[in-house]
Amino acid sequence: MRFDEAYSGKVFIMSSPTADNAKAIIYGMPMDWTVSFRPGSRFGPNRIREASLGLEEYSPYMDKHMEEVDYFDAGDIPLPFGNPQRSLDMIQDYVTKILAQDKFPLGLGGEHLVSWPVIQAVYQKHPDMALIHIDAHADLREEYEGEPLSHSTPVRKTCELIGPENVYSFGIRSGSREEFQYAKQSGMHMSMYDVAEPLSQVLPKLKGRNVYVTIDIDVLDPAFAPGTGTAEAGGITSKELLKAIELIAKSDVNVVGADLVEVAPIYDPTEQTVIAASKFTREILLGWVK
């Protein structure tokens, strides 16, 4: 399974025709096999691509035009429906190939469990990595109703892989008592409710570090992103998330990959969620791909 083959479906706006000179690879992870509430995020990647057609090609946040970054939309990984472990193995293998060519992997989800195999692949190349996790949910469970493969577990798995002291979570406002206790006792960093302000305080501590960033769209309040599987009241605004992306872009951290997950278009007939997600994707491309 190759990431550099021509893709006949919809692609993100201004995608290069080939991957040859691309600095970044956009790829979809259409999986929602383990969600605990509402399915539908497997349709997120393609709808984000469709919404990108309405974007301006210039970003006033980054003062850059999309023609300044060479990226290739490789389409969706053809994941086997209903088979979590096989899907995760395929994602890890796919991203390993992207990293082997020193390209920036930008994944579109899909439920949040899809971040786990990507983090494993990035860790193999950058064992000194840190994780920036922006989300409404802690995702620190060891299992969900007896199942260790769950979209509520990827950050706990990452803590066990890279060490909790290298994990930085922002915007958290939901989780079990045990998850919040683990966060306090393990040595990881967790900022509750807000993102931009605590992030601005942490980024200087990550100066020079290789960092992977995972963003769950449900960090936004449902007023700004109702199209997600596990919406959580009390979230941040789209403006605040744009500011967070800008802060990371203008910091001294080395972002080595990123993903944007949990967009479930069926729950948002207004399409404001996919419109916002496509804009965040544009900002990530222009701000984080060096």
TrEMBL record:
UniProt xrefs under Gene3D superfamilies: Ureohydrolase domain
Family stated for the protein in its record: Belongs to the arginase family. Agmatinase subfamily.
Protein name: Agmatinase
Single GO MF annotation: metal ion binding
Cofactor: Mn(2+)
Domain of life: Bacteria
The enzyme's E.C. designation: 3.5.3.11
Binding of Mn(2+), residues: 112, 135, 137, 139, 216, 218
Pathway this chain belongs to: Amine and polyamine biosynthesis; putrescine biosynthesis via agmatine pathway; putrescine from agmatine: step 1/1
EC top class, as a word: hydrolase
Reactions catalysed according to its record: agmatine + H2O = urea + putrescine
Assigned keywords, A-Z: Hydrolase, Manganese, Metal-binding, Polyamine biosynthesis, Putrescine biosynthesis, Spermidine biosynthesis
Cofactor note: Binds 2 manganese ions per subunit.
Pfam families: Arginase
Function field: Catalyzes the formation of putrescine from agmatine.
Name of the gene this protein is made from: speB
Cited PANTHER family: ARGINASE/AGMATINASE, GUANIDINO ACID HYDROLASE, MITOCHONDRIAL
Biological process per Gene Ontology, one example term: spermidine biosynthetic process
Xref: InterPro entries: Agmatinase-rel, Ureohydrolase, Ureohydrolase_dom_sf, Ureohydrolase_Mn_BS
